[in-house]
């Protein structure tokens, strides 16, 4: 267990990117605090009442020093801003071949689904050295997914998806906290992130997350099941007539009926299931019904995962497993 | 209460002995008396808020929630936040010191709208009573931020009542701000041009602008939440087509500028105190003056830095981030100018000066740690951790409350005509400074280690620093309790002072202590610049002679039953 | 509220000039202070309404089609009538202020009364509008039941929407429109009621020859307030009643 003043584990690539920035900010803070402290102590002692120090030629204003002590902090903060924004941009650049994990927050637990269908509560197993992309949604109030060792911290909001990614660099068990106050048991909405050696991770995957389940579906397969159950294919079929094709849709621009162009990201897909008429694709009618009351957030996530897995080259309406199970690709 | 030390026997009429009945206080239109009404109110709420803080720190001595249940703990930190923000810090300096000093400092007989001034006190008290009812009849568990949909759909505590309480407090603050703006614009004494104004006035002016522009937005936001809770409409409810993040935008549009409502008046106090006790004209007057306005203006466009993690557009984030860096610059300018004011001064380490220097030290740390949070890279980690808690306590407690204490000690002899016990006050200043750092510095480390805020069950690795923090809080508590006792004591037993015990410049020191009801016997005409301390040209300054600070007959203050001789003039 | 406070404040004036409050030195300073204060108060009011306008913008941007359709359930004619009534009442208020400056007691009584009558007229029209909303289940809450207009049904863009959509979304978005409608016109209505109270008190004071009314400032400030109420409506009317497609 770390001691009281020890620094938190640095267990992700983002932690490596952020910590230098943090320590430079600490250095800046110390630097300016010491300067001001020295000024106050030095002036306070030298010019204390009754001291013999000379007070000849007092100055009450001096444009040069004003410019200096406005300009230097300004320049420093601009430098820090650029650096900090670069660090932030790093956190927003999702690697292409990341493992996909879906996280639903609800009072007061984390419900996690892996691409291959393994579900966990308050636990997340990931391999070391592999980027993991997290998609969040909340079922009730605002939560926040916070893993101090990875330095990632993302609000989990009801109504739309948020994203984060990390690549763990160290095997170990790390704390997972809810960072946004969410009611009675906020401080118990905690969990653990297990970072495993790739081999151990594969073994864990194979064992079905240490739980005995006879048949396990991948999350995209679960999504396909829902897709079939609701007969989505009737409209979103091969030769689209009533509704646009979903193949190769994810992360491509879509032109809407009102002339706007939007990116078909996770949130767009979710919105089109929950609020279909909100963004209607050019050339189509808003005939789709809302599935808000028919699907849980878990199921919407599964559907989204399924739609994301639809790539040309795979059979259109079939789980494109190859793209999801990155382990096989590499 | 405050008036008990005075009687008609004391001769010269002043605002304190001009009517002593409860009624004369509760219906007063005198800005000085209203200031004292506020002082009483703020002290009561400070006690309630401090109770919350005490319970929080006690609970966190152990990591297993050994005193309070979940819901009780959540109610404690919510109460602490709501009371301290809306009912203590926001009204502290503007409504107490601002009310008392602004008309005196600009040579006016009163504020422009005395009735509105009294009305705003009643609004404040109404809000306060509602808050007290909400707290003591079951409590509120949303935190002071009232985030939807938790506050609107999920919490089953007294949220609506607390929202109304904050609404009333908000209108109290709007009316105070409106009054100050008009007073500062229209009531200045002849010759008192804008650039001859004390910097406290500039600071109050900037604060008032924020109050008038930002507070109505939170008022309407809170009302929307009330509507949503009571009528079940979904303005911010995602299951009804609403957007919970919109509520955060509207909330922080007020609540970030509100941070400047809390700190800028304090900066005004520091300008007065540092200049007076350095016996120096303030360094870089126009820079300090305009930096207050710059903070007020920039303060309106940085609210988005509270929402870096809500998935708002990254470009929006960059804009809010750089603007947040910009708003730090005027504060840095102020700090350097204060420090430079001490250069070649004759520094007199009185208690207000110690509080003011403490302010500078703590505010520098508080301000600089703000950069960690405006920089998006580090905010990703530090957001909503104890780092944030430590940061805003350094600014709001280390800044605002230290500034308030500096101001209250500085003007205490003016307000009540009696001096507080200097050695006790110095002890309190040192205790507060040490206790504060002991309490909150460990929280920076806790935050970096990743302890989230609003947790009372926490992992054992955070235990030692939490114990240290709680230990510091007990020192801090002693530092706050001592002034409470000696200040009340001094109302009756403090040595009576001359009109200008500090030999300060500024119009408020040119009338008797305590001032007469109409403030000045003759309308002052100002022909000098602000902070016209001439002492710098003397190589040495003798100790302040007692006769310049205290009225002579006060030698026998301890035998108070003796009838006192009438004091006609000023020394 | 500020106007009212000022009215009372003013009532206790003393000094050389009978209407001069003790804290002021000259009438000019006092007038300036009142005007500055009133304008500052109106700025506050703008920000107060501003929060709701901001919410309106966000949601109208999110649900443009439904907002367009929902606005057809509001009567342009009733809204237009109310706009006319309020504008006219602003005119009569201006005449009342003029009468006060000319120290015409009769003029003040007449024009203040006319203003109050118009204000009541506004509320009566509002009453009919609101009760129509109750009848048509357009008041947000459990009984809310939105029927899309035939133009939405026939809209090629939305062809068939009514028959095919369970309508949860439609209901929600339309409800959002009416939530904003009731919140914003309701808040405006509260301001009209406050205006009626203030103007009535003022009328009564003029009628009784109250000393405060020797002085035109109270009526001038009430006038400013009333014009502000009018201007808010000038924004509300197009935002709710006249949404272009």
Written account of the structure:
The complex is a heterotrimer of chains A (330), B (571) and C (245). Chain A is α+β, with helices and mostly antiparallel strands and 330 residues long. Chain A has helices at 13-46, 63-92, 198-206, 219-229, 266-274, 297-309, 321-324, 326-329; strands spanning 99-106, 109-114, 119-121, 123-127, 131-138, 143-147, 152-156, 162-167, 172-178, 191-196, 253-255, 261-263. With 571 residues, chain B is mainly α. Chain B has helices spanning 22-26, 31-59, 70-105, 114-136, 150-154, 159-186, 199-231, 244-278, 285-299, 314-341, 351-374, 376-382, 386-416, 422-449, 463-493, 546-549. Mean pLDDT of chain B is 89; it is low at 1-10, 536-540 and 554-571. Chain C is mainly α and 245 residues long. The longest helix of chain C has 41 residues, at 168-208. The radius of gyration of chain C is 22 Å and the shape is elongated. The two termini of chain C are 39 Å apart. The B-C interface holds B 103, 108-116, 119, 174-175, 178-179, 181-183, 185-187, 212-217, 219-221, 224, 227, 231-235, 240-243, 246, 250, 518, 523 and C 1-2, 5-6, 8-9, 22-25, 29, 32-33, 36-37, 40-41, 43-45, 47-52, 54-55, 58-59, 62-63, 140-142, 169, 172-173, 175-176, 179-180, 183, 187.
The number of helices of chain C is: 9
Largest sheet of chain C: none
Q: What is the residue-averaged pLDDT of chain C?
A: 84
Largest interface, C-beta within 8 A: A-B, 93 and 100 residues
Q: What does the radius of gyration of chain C come to?
A: 22 Å
Please mark out the parts of chain B with pLDDT under 50 across 5 or more consecutive residues, or reply none: 1-10, 536-540, 554-571
How far is it from the N-terminal to the C-terminal residue of chain C, by CA?
Answer: 39 Å
Number of helices of chain B: 16
Alpha-beta content class of chain B? mainly alpha
**Bulk shape of chain B:** globular
Order of helices and strands of chain C: HHHHHHHHH
Number of strands of chain B: 0
| Straight-line distance between termini of chain B | 28 Å
Q: Specify the biggest β-sheet of chain B.
A: none
Strand content of chain B: under 5%
The helix content of chain C, as a percent range, equals: over 70%
Average residue pLDDT of chain B: 89
Topology, pairings included?
The complex is a heterotrimer of chains A (330), B (571) and C (245).
Chain A: H1 13-46, H2 63-92, E1 99-106, E2 109-114, E3 119-121, E4 123-127, E5 131-138, E6 143-147, E7 152-156, E8 162-167, E9 172-178, E10 191-196, H3 198-206, H4 219-229, E11 253-255, E12 261-263, H5 266-274, H6 297-309, H7 321-324, H8 326-329
Parallel strand pairs in A: 1-5, 4-10
Antiparallel strand pairs in A: 1-2, 2-3, 5-8, 6-7, 6-9, 9-10, 11-12
Helix pairs in contact in A: 1-2, 4-6, 5-6
Chain B: H1 22-26, H2 31-59, H3 70-105, H4 114-136, H5 150-154, H6 159-186, H7 199-231, H8 244-278, H9 285-299, H10 314-341, H11 351-374, H12 376-382, H13 386-416, H14 422-449, H15 463-493, H16 546-549
Chain C: H1 2-11, H2 27-62, H3 64-71, H4 76-101, H5 105-135, H6 150-154, H7 161-164, H8 168-208, H9 217-241
Helix pairs in contact in C: 1-9, 2-8, 2-9, 3-8, 4-5, 4-9, 5-8, 8-9
